[in-house]
Amino acid sequence: MTDQSPPAAHGRHRRSPARRRTLTVVAVVVALVAAAGVITWLVRSRSSTDPAAGPAAVTVTAASPTGSPFDGAAASAPVSAGARCPGEPLTVAVTPDLAPTLTAFAERQDLTVAGCPVRIDAVDPAQVVDGSATADVWIPDSSSWLPRATAAGRTVGPDAPSIATSPVVFALSGQAQQQLAAAGASTDVAGLLATRKTAAPIRVGLPDPQRSAAAVAATLSARAAVSGATDARPALTWAVRSSPADLPVDDAQLLARLTSDPGTAVPVTEQSLLAWDQDHPDSPARALYPGPGGFAMDFPVVAVGGDPAATAAARELATALTTEPARTALLAAGFRAPDQTPGPAISAAGAASGIDPAYRETSDPPTPQAVDDAIRSVQVTNEGTRMLAVMDISGSMLAQVPGTNGADRIDLAKDAAARGLGLYRADSDIGLWEFSTRLSPTSDHRELIPISSLGPDGQGSTGAARLAAALNGLQAIPDGGTGLYDTVLDATRTVRAGYDPDRVNVVLLLTDGMNDDVNSITMDQLLSTLAAEQDPARPVPVISIAFGPDSDVAALQQISRATGGATYLSQDPRQIGEIFLDAVGQRLCRPSC
């Protein structure tokens, strides 16, 4: 069996710097004794009626391979806890939120494995997948990890029986719950996403889906919730782009974030939320079930490494952990049974917690392809950005927009652009131009912010703050024209000149008019030049947002087709926020959207 370092001190949710807690169970979990080709597992529990009667043994047998590391102990009689351990300890890597319950159960039942200790390690499942943690038996939170482990070269299985379940819910603070109610939104993930259109949106906090099965489940639930809706792409983009960066994968740490960031909803298991509320009565979380398309964690027990002895051990460990005492312990800790039957902890949760004992997940387990697609969608949507935003400040931008109490196009466009660009994180590089006609003796555009990082600028401010200030300062020129063609060509050349292969390089154009610069290149010249300079290895799509009745949508569509971009038409600049989201979401399908 796998040799491990000495166990570390542990608590309910504490972890070492390597994010791994080692919980040594000196009393053993299951007993494996090999003799005459049979592995005999002995589970010893103290008599509940006569403590003086000594240990009682339950014997389970399974076929044993030759050379089991547990060989050497007699199989003809139960082995007491004091017997010499015939082999190395069985190491079990358990998802951190389940490890304390299994550890307490083992200690309380005084379980043994032929006198051999079973070492329970609290390990993030991703560590087993990437090989940074090893074990003989693995209990991750979700079966969705198993194909990923196999793809990474790990040998797991062949069996994967579930010992418990827990639905993935979105945890809300009391404030977020009030925001949801004030918005009149449905109490499911679709309602959560709909708040993006309100003045008080609730962000969705998604940890790295490569390291969090709950994040994968949340992503798939969101996709199911808006499937077929006309605004599906903006909604899903919001779910990903609004998430705070670098969120922890640990449920307890995620729940703790609600205290400092109450406007964010985070995906955790129902059991974790129950445990949090019990430990933190002054800052309880509220459960929001995703609705149709939700998923439950299923906590499978699998062998790791292909060792036949470990395979037998995993089977017998699963048997021990599905006995009535184990079931009772798991239900008392807030887990559900493998068939999703709730226990007393769930039934006792008050209505204020949002916990619903009657809730059942009806979705089929996600396929490996669905999991891969969910991970990819988050990664692509979050890819680094190198963008040049180009804003029209021609005279037509002073036109008032009906139904806005006198607001003009430039003001609404600035506000919408600020909200849209606010979706980009500090690691994005964004520049800003304004354009009209003859803003200088030789150019129709003027650079306000060079393409640069939105992060700290080394002068006590950030690039994001400078960009916001520049946007706020935009002023339309009353008699200014629209130098569209020259500006588009200059913008694509500028972005391509500093092309970053590790980012999405794009021109974002916002305009309400058509080219009226008599001294500019023609449309045919623009398109032929764009085609000649287009480099498939260094694409620079032009995303155009046209608003107002005078926009030359046909010309913008030709520009977008020539560059692999897209054109959006909005009669109301207030819709630009949704357009920004859709444009970012097109990364998943470009250039064939």
Automatic annotation (TrEMBL):
Keywords: Membrane, Transmembrane, Transmembrane helix
Glycoprotein found in the keyword field: no
PROSITE patterns the UniProt entry points to: VWFA
Transmembrane segments: 22-43
Pfam family name, one: VWA_3
SUPFAM superfamilies to which the protein is assigned, alphabetical: Periplasmic binding protein-like II, vWA-like
Organism domain of life: Bacteria
Matching InterPro entries: VWF_A, vWFA_dom_sf
The keyword GTP-binding is annotated on this UniProt entry: no
Domain named VWFA: residues: 386-584
The protein's name: von Willebrand factor type A
